[in-house]
Amino acid sequence: MRPATFILLCYLSLCCVQAHAQQAAGWYNTDSLLARLSRNKQINQVLHKAADIYAHAHIDSAGISIEAFKMAYLEKWMLDNKKLHLKAQELYKRKHIISVVDYTRLSNARRFITVDLLHRKILYDTLVTQGYGTGDKRNDKYCLPIFFSNEINSQCSSLGLVVATKGTHPDNPCHLCKYTLIRKHDCVVVLEGLEKGVNDNILARDVVVHTTGSRNFAADSTRRRLGITDTLYRVVPENCECCTSANGIVKGTSTYASACGIAENGGYIGQSNGCLVLPEEQHIGIINTIKNGSLIFIYSNVISDGTNYFRDSPMVKKLVRMAR
User: Fold this and answer.
1) Alpha carbon of 193 to those of 103, 116, 124, 208: distances in Å?
2) Domain annotation for the chain: domains and CATH numbers
3) Which of 68, 77, 157, 291 has the most CB atoms at less than 10 Å from its CB?
């Protein structure tokens, strides 16, 4: 890790201390791990290919670090080559698509990318939420997240390799995406964790990919300002059970993932209960691209109370054994 990067991360961790009165224990040196792994000739070739894709696709211009992408590509390679059998591995079917979430970036940074590995190009590059946690393990949306968890009711994000499975359209979807009241589409993607002890409770925790809430973007001027080209983009709150009280008074649902909500929050997307929540104006294309079997790698190098992906990950443990 570069000294300047380390100093920045330490500074940001102090921001979190003020919010939590609890400092992250430190930051894992992913560069050092990758250097050790590269002593293995086969792994070294994979890392060189990852670096080539990273450069060719201009991922460096997105909000994703090369360490995050290299780890994602390396773990994907392990899965492709059956180096390790993981729970729910059979759900992984779309091998040319991978998404990476880099939680070493703040929530006002575009830290979610979807990459077409076959054509070596970025398909989507956007914001994504982080789980806010509970009790004394609470993340602040203006700081780097330092708490992650696999525990039910933790309300934290999980780290590691997961697979995006089926897309769904719930019976009453307006809490997650009121746009479905006008145009039906899969507004949720179910996730399955692949790493035991790290994220294998994601399905039980109902951690999914979705968006949330919106304002009424009926005005042409509003749609143009937000870059919404779909002329049918509307909100019809009177048709939405989620935002109508028993006495018929319309109550708005959260807009933290809409362009309006993000703008009002200084460019920061809000926090979730652990779900990967995408900006509403982009979620349809992303969901249609990643569903039905693509991988998502969720990265952080933080070491805090209960969080150390590089200690707990069965994928990392296998890679270290291979490199000996």
Assistant:
1) 17, 22, 22, 11
2) 3-173+183-209+257-323 (2.40.440.10)
3) 157
